[in-house]
Amino acid sequence: AVVSEGDKEDLIISMANSRYEYVKSFEAHDALLPSTWIVIRIDGCHFH
Question: For the tRNAHis guanylyltransferase catalytic domain, which residue ranges apply (predicted)?
Fold first, then answer.
């Protein structure tokens, strides 16, 4: 059987999409409370 380049690309794209859709079904929506701040402290003291 002869498979064209376009058919190969369509197959690869559909396989990739289905794999990620399966993973997305296990994701939970993370929501922050209103007026919540994320604080990150970066100081250069202990970087190696």
Answer: 20-48
| Number of domains comprising the chain | 1
C-alpha span between 45 and 27 (Å, rounded): 37
* Spatial CA neighbour of 21 closest among 10, 11, 30, 13: 13
Q: Which of 1, 20, 22, 24 is nearest to 12 (CA)?
A: 20
Task: Tell me the CA distances in angstroms from 45 to 22, 33, 38, 42, one per residue in order.
Answer: 43, 32, 22, 9
Condensed to tens digits (0 to 9), the pLDDT of residues 1-48 reads 565 666 666 666 665 556 667 677 777 777 878 888 888 888 777 766
